[in-house]
Amino acid sequence: MPKMNLDHFESAMLFALITSVVMGIVTKDNDRDRLHYGIYVFICFVIALFGLGWLMRLGHG
Fold it and tell me: Does the pTM exceed 0.90?
């Protein structure tokens, strides 16, 4: 099996994608709601990723 060399940003985006897909499938009843909720959760993860990244950047100077 080939190794994946992912940096921190790519790993976080992959985590956000997989987690949002799972949360969309598990929590909603029909396909339309699953898709909308999965996209919503993914966008929330990305916003949190950039927000926390900037907080850490500002905190370290």
Answer: no
